[in-house]
Amino acid sequence: MVNTQHAIEIESLSKRFASITALDHIDLTVRTGEVFGLLGPNGAGKTTLIDLLLGLTTPTDGRASVFGTDVESDPASIRQRIGILPEDYSIYRTMTGREQLQAIARLKNGSDDLDRVRNEVGLAIEAFDRPAGEYSKGMQQRLVLAMALLGDPELLILDEPLSGLDPHGIDLVRTLIEDHAASGTTIFFASHRLSEVAAICDRVGILNDGQLVSVVDVETLSERMGTVEQLRLFTETQADSSVLSQLRSIDAISSVHTDGCILTIDCHSSIAKADAIALIHQECSVLDFEVNSSALEDVFAAVVDVDGSKSTAESTAVRGDVE
Amino acid sequence: MTVSAVLRHDFTVLRRTIVGRFLLAIALGATVGGPLVGYILSNGPVTSESLGLSLWLVVGTVLPFGVLLTAAVAIVADRETGRLRLLFGAPITKADLFVGVFLSRSIAISLLIAVSFTIIQLLSFTSIITVSWRTLWPLAGSTFLLCVAYTAIGTAISAVATTRLRAVGVAIAFYIWAAFWPQLVSEIAEPNGPQLGEPTTTETISHFIGTLSPFGAYSQIVTPSHAIYGAPVSGPLLTTPVMVLVLLLWTIVLFSVGYYWFPRADI
User: Fold this and answer.
1) How far is the alpha carbon of B69 from chain A, nearest alpha carbon, in Å?
2) Mind listing the pLDDT tens digit of every residue in chain B (267 residues)?
């Protein structure tokens, strides 16, 4: 049954290429106006899922609909309502950014103000009228993002949108996504970086080896798996074994590594970080320190191990969250 | 509407990329350059007969090769580089894309042929070429049909192939087959019969089968038949309308293959 509250509905969707199963019975719903993150390592099936949503690939089994329209039966009308930023793309090197944007605008039957869209993605006017062959990867990414924004799409499908962008570009894209989400645009955001997804999305689906391992709120996932922060301390003298033992005896510290005068400590609480710094400073004099907020990366690693096998326990625990 | 949007898009791309310049160069170079080189070498005006030979040897071989190769990579290159994903962010179907690309390429080559033959027509007002417009423009029409047939073949290859390398490989293999088909048929069907260059006057079934490749049909239209068979050969199966039909069939069949296949293919 068609549900207008749902931007994307996927039922038991599978895709096989000869003997390879790219997607295996995926069930997923993305609500209208939601910012949904699809996480997975390279080769997990994210791009195949996007291709199926765009009607570029035919499913082996199951079905997908976008805004209530079956993708297979009417892909063109769906494409009228979406904007796509693919992961792998190429632009015409001899054509200017303006010409390429104009060409896509014509295909979308749109009457967009190209300079407004250009401005929105932060592409300089001088660059806009230069051949795109002279563009950096970041500028190309902005141009393609501008193409995606043409026609004010109701659903933005972004496949690794932050790749190739400098920190300023990343901030700009995040702001842009937040602005569009605030105005009601549904965002489907595929990435292999959990930190990106955590910063932007409301919910996260974790895809691994063609299977949807879990779908949860970012906060819930983080809470469920615990928060880990990595503390690196640069000391004047090398820590001896008794100091390391004292560190390891702290409950909220899960691991301690030494490399000369550099200590790497995984902490599960802020108090543990403070305790560790105080202890080390007393014994070895701390010269400097840094904290890597890798908590969500660790969560991701815990759910999907590097071998690509599914964490069965987590899968069972969170499958009930899949709508 | 969407087909015309794709057509305009592909036409813009052709105009602004090296593919368009390549087609322009070979169309003008072969069509106008061939007769001019003939004029310089023969030290006399280009006649209807020598223009036919020039079209057969230069235009008939060079232009289809360029048209076939550029059409053969038209879709598959965009598929391989990811440009198709950008295009399919717009409300177009795969069928729209296939038809739009075919039409765009066909129109582009038609315009180039029209310009080339107009230049020849202008040269006919000088002492370089002595060919009447009644002879010239049917030859232009045949060249147009040949190029549209090769465009259909190339676009179909591009729609079916999964990589540029395969598309180019198949296109070159087809081109070689089509070019040597008349001689191949002659060798196989009548090993003891008259060979190319040897006099014969009666039409045989192998003559007709030899014209079933696009190049064979074009050759039969634009050249005096003794250019191919060594002596004038004529008959109901070798008439121009039949050859036109052969070229049209190539266009229709290959266009249908691509039109059927591409919407069902995974991008």
Assistant:
1) 19
2) 589 989 998 998 888 888 889 999 999 898 888 888 878 887 778 887 778 777 778 888 899 999 999 999 999 999 999 889 889 989 999 999 999 999 999 999 999 999 999 998 898 888 888 888 888 899 899 999 999 999 999 999 999 999 999 999 999 999 999 999 988 887 787 666 655 555 556 667 777 888 899 998 998 888 765 556 555 667 788 888 999 999 999 999 999 999 999 998 888
CATH, range A229-293: 3.30.70.2470
Give the B-side interface with A, CB within 8 Å.
Answer: 1-2, 5-6, 8-9, 12-13, 16-18, 81-93, 96, 264, 266-267
Interface of A with B (CB under 8 A): 17, 51, 54-58, 75-77, 79-80, 82-84, 86, 88-92, 94-95, 99, 103-104, 106-109, 144, 147-148
> Could you tell me the fold of the domain covering A6-224+302-321?
Rossmann fold (3.40.50)
Task: Give the residue extent of every domain in chain B.
Answer: 2-264
Helix (H) or strand (E) holding A29: strand A20-31
**Residue ranges of chain A that CATH labels 3.30.70.2470:** 229-293
Sign of CA dihedral A192, A154, A57, A23: positive
Distance CA A149, CA A165 (A): 17
Chain A with chain B: Cβ pairs closer than 8 A? 94
**Pairing relation of β-strands A35-39 and A186-191?**
parallel
Give the Cα separation of A310 and A315 in Å (integer).
7
